[in-house]
Amino acid sequence: MLTASVVASAGTALAAIPSPDRGVWHLGPIPIRAYALCIVAGIAVALWWGEKRLVARGGRPGTVLDVAVWAVPFGLLGGRLYHVATDWRTYFGPGGDPWGALEIWNGGLGIWGAVALGGVGAWIGCRRLGVPLPVFADAVAPGIIVAQAIGRLGNWFNQELYGGPTTLPWGLEIYRRVDPATGLEDPIGGVVLDPTPIAVVHPTFLYELLWNLAVAVVVVLADRWFRLGHGRAFAVYVAGYTLGRFFIELMRTDPATRVFGDLRINVVVSVVVFLAAVVYLVVAPRGREDFQQADPDPDPGPAEAGSEPPPDAGPTRDGEPTGDPVRREDA
After folding, report:
1. Contacts of 152 (CB under 8 A, 6+ apart)
2. Residue-wise DSSP of 297-319
3. Closest Cα partner for 115 from 225, 10, 235, 19?
4. How far apart are CA 69 and CA 59, in angstroms?
5. Window from 105-109, 150-154, 230-234, 287-291 with minimum mean pLDDT
6. Is 17 helix (H, G, I), strand (E, B) or coil?
7. How many C-beta neighbours within 10 Å does residue 140 have?
8. How far apart are the C-alpha atoms of 128 and 53, rounded to whole Å?
C-alpha cells in the first residue's frame, strides 16, 4: 500500500511538463536537430494530406509535390526573413550576431512570412501546372495548420516560445543547458547537467499546438458541410489560426519587437491578418468551383508532326485528306 509521502511525491513529479534535456544529438560530426526534424515531419504530413485532398477535388496525382518544389523553399525563405525583420536587434543590434540570421537550424521561422512568400512559390507552381491557386490553397489548408502544430514540438525541444511563471499542473519546466566541453551556457545546442528547473512557465507552444489541431478539425468540417471553395477553406484556416495566436501571443514573455507602445508585433499582425481573412470569407464566391486538371499534352506523334496521313484518313487531294470515308473496294 502506497504511503502518503509516496503519493505526494508522485503528484509533485506529475505536476509539471519536463523539457527535453537537449535539442541536438550528434551522429559523429553531424548534428541531428530536433527542430529541423519537426519541420520536415510537418512538411511531409502537409504534402501527403494536401495531395489526397487535391486529387479528390479533381487534381492529378503528384501535383502537390510538384508545386511544393516551388512553395517550400519560398516559404522557408519567407519565414526566416520575417523572423529576422521582426527580431533584427538579435542579429544586427548592439552585441548581435549577423551570421546568426542565416542559422535557420537554431529556430526562428515566422509563419506570416512563410505563408506569404510560400504563397508566391505556390502561385508559380500552380500556373505551370494549370491549377487555380484558390483550389490548391483550399486543398492544402488543413495540412498546413497540422504542419504548424508539429513544428511547435521543435520549440519544445529548443525551450522557446513559452509564457510567464505558473503553478498549474501543466506548467513547463525550463532547465539550464550548457556546453559540456566548456561549461558555458548554450540554450539551443547544450545539454542539461542539473535537472533542477530554473523556472516553471506556461507552455504556450503547447497551447498553440492544441489550438492548431482544433483549427484543422474546424477547416475539415466546414469544408465538408458547406462545400467551401474559391479559397474560403484557406481563409477559415487563416482566421482560426490568427484568432488563437492573438491570445497566445499575449501570454508569451520571450523578447519580441514591440510596436504602438508595448504591443508585441505579432499581436498586431494577428489582428490585421484575421480581419483580412474575415473580409475575404464575406466577399468570396459561395459554393465550390468545378475543377478538373487537364492531363499534360502528350508528345506529338508522326501524324501530328505532319509526316504522313494515317492509312485510313481517306482520299487526299494535293496531299491533304478530303475527309471522305474510305471505301473498301477502293482500298
Report:
1. 38, 161, 205, 206, 208, 209, 212
2. PPPP-TTTTTS---TTS--EETT
3. 235
4. 17
5. 105-109
6. strand
7. 27
8. 20
Q: What is the mean pLDDT of residues 289-308?
A: 68
Rounded to an integer, what distance in angstroms lies between the CA atom of residue 200 and that of residue 152? 18
Q: Which three three-digit cell numbers place residue 228?
A: 467551401
In this prediction, residue 14 carries a pLDDT of 53
171-174 and 177-178 strand pairing: unpaired
Longest dimension (CA), the chain: 106
Q: How far, in Å, CA of 90 to CA of 97, rounded?
A: 7
Q: Do the Cβ atoms of 121 and 211 come closer than 8 Å? A: no
Whole-angstrom Cα distance, residue 159 to residue 21?
A: 10
CA distance linking residue 207 with residue 148, whole number of Å: 12
> Burial, 226: exposed, middle or buried (Cβ in 10 Å; 0-12, 13-18, 19+)?
middle
Cell 495531395: give the residue: 51
The residue assigned the cell 512570412 is: 113
How far apart CA 60 and CA 131 sit, in angstroms, is 10
- Residues 150, 247: Cα–Cα separation, whole Å: 20
Alpha carbon dihedral 118, 63, 139, 135, in 10-degree steps, equals: 90
Q: Look up residue 250 and give its amino acid.
A: L
User: One-letter amino acid identity for 189?
Assistant: G
HSE-CB of 133 using CA atoms within 13 angstroms: 11
| CA distance linking residue 128 with residue 271, whole number of Å | 34
Average pLDDT of span 136-163: 96
Query: Could you tell me the three cell numbers for 148?
Result: 504548424
Distance, CA of 232 to CA of 277 (rounded, Å)? 9
